Amino acid sequence: LGMDLDLGAQLTIILTAVLASIGTAAVPGAGIIMLVIILEAVGIPSEGIALILGVDRILDMMRTVINITGDTSVAVIVASSEDQLTIPT
Predict the structure, then answer these.
(1) Nearest to 55 by CA among 79, 31, 78
(2) Do 61 and 78 meet the contact criterion of CB atoms below 8 Å apart?
(3) How many angstroms separate the CA atoms of 17 and 24, rounded?
(4) Which site from 2, 6, 9, 81 is most exposed, i.e. has the minimal number of CB atoms within 10 Å?
(5) Residue 69's pLDDT is what?
(6) What does the CA dihedral 79, 19, 57, 74 come to, rounded to 10 degrees?
(7) What is the arithmetic mean of pLDDT over 62-71?
(8) Could you report how far apart the first and last alpha carbons of the chain are, in Å?
(9) Percent of the chain residues past pLDDT 90, beyond the cut
């Protein structure tokens, strides 16, 4: 794009991305929407998003699987440590 981002713009991108990722981690497909919001917050044109859309669908599915697997694993570990997990035999 040939754009130079000053320190303020870089910090804005980092802060906005971190805050947006907290609220949208469990929402499939929200990554692209958050990317557009972050880019527009610092004045970067969002026309290039169309190039990312083709690849992001596959990556989004992988991110969702990893998120669900992590949530399920932690739930099983906590339930097991609290003796709330019964495994049928």
Answers:
(1) 31
(2) no
(3) 10
(4) 2
(5) 94
(6) -10
(7) 89
(8) 60
(9) 20
Three-class SS string for the chain? CCCCCCHHHHHHHHHHHHHHHHHHCCCCCHHHHHHHHHHHHCCCCCCCHHHHHHHHHHHHHHHHHHHHHHHHHHHHHHHHHCCCCCCCC
Q: Report the interhelical angle of 7-24 vs 30-41 (nearest 10°).
A: 160
Residue located via tokens 């997990």 = 85
Which residues fall within 8 angstroms of residue 35, CB to CB, at 6 or more apart?
A: 46, 49, 52
Residue partners of 9: CB distance under 8 A and separation at least 6: 42, 43
In the block, residue with structure tokens 């929402």: 27
Joined together, the tokens standing for residue 19 give: 């805050």
**Residue 77 identity:** I
